Structure formats: structure tokens, C-alpha cells
Amino acid sequence: MPNTDTAGKITAILRRMEGQSGSAIGTLFEALYQEIHALAVQQLRRLSPGETLTPTVLVHECYLRLIQQHAHEFKDSHHMLAHLATVMRCYLVDNIRHRKSRKKDHQVVSDERQLVGDEGFNLDLLDLERTLSMMEKIDPSLTRLIEMRYFLGMKVREISELTGHSERQLYRRWKEARTLFIALSNQDTKD
Description:
Blueprint: H1 4-17, H2 22-45, H3 55-68, H4 77-101, E1 103-104, E2 107-108, E3 114-116, E4 122-124, H5 125-138, H6 140-150, H7 156-163, H8 167-190
Helix pairs in contact: 1-2, 2-3, 3-4, 4-6, 5-6, 5-8, 6-8
């Protein structure tokens, strides 16, 4: 989704932000608002119909979480976008957990959300979160790769431009990530 021009714009804004406070973060988010909003729309389309969370709310919640987590410490566009993917993932998971925790007469509100991606991840968002959390302990870089592809919708070519890793290397890493993800998700269902 984010292209090389966007990555350059992010890095330039981050350099101007060094030593500044939250107002510069607002400038960064304002510059990227349309792209982040498009990512939020994409993510919410993956949830089942009837979702009450709007893309605007998701974008604003991500902004608030970025501010709270010292966004002024981002080194470059890669660091910022990787963190954005993690923040978006965490907010969606927290939102679904909150909905599931509401009980009415000891019945959990039926709020299953299936994420069906073009990358072969067809899991409930909470199952996806459990598997990614296990992956994080084994290889955080593979987890970041999945987050960038799944939550930001980035293509391998875009990640390559952003990170400086070759596409060939990223395709190999993507195969590793998928293999590990499938193994851990199968292990999780057995437990």
C-alpha cells in the first residue's frame, strides 16, 4: 500500500520531528491520513457483516495509541509502518475481545469475526492473534512481515522498497512465515 514516495515523506517528517512532541506526530498522521484510512477500510472489510466499528474510529484509535507509545521515537518509515500494523492488529483484537467479554445471561455475545485474506490466513481474529503472539516469541521479524502483508496489505515489492531487503529474500522469509504460522495455528488448535 505505502509506496516509495510515501516512505520518503514519512522519513522526512520523522527527521523533522526529532526532539519534538506530539504536534509533529499530528503532522505525520495528517500527511498519511488518506492511506491509513484506506488500510482501515481494507481491514474492516475482512470482518463479518454488521461490524459497527468504522474506518474513521479505527484510524483515530491507532493515532491515539501511536501518541501514547512515544511515536516520536520512530527511526524511519519502515519502523513507523511496522508499528502502525501492530497497533492496528492490537486494536482490532482488543475490540473483539471486549465484545466477546460482554455477557448476557451467561451467553457470550456471538461476535465471531472471520478474517479471510488473500494470503491464506482464514482464522478468527483472536486465533490469528494467538498464533502471531506465539510467532513473536520465535521470530519477531516473521511476525512483522505477516503484519505488513496482512494488516497493511503491502506487496513483497513494497516491503522490499521500504526495508531494503531483496524481494527474493522476502519471498523466502514469507514462505518461512507461512510455514511457521500454519504449524503454530495447528498446534494451537490441538491444545
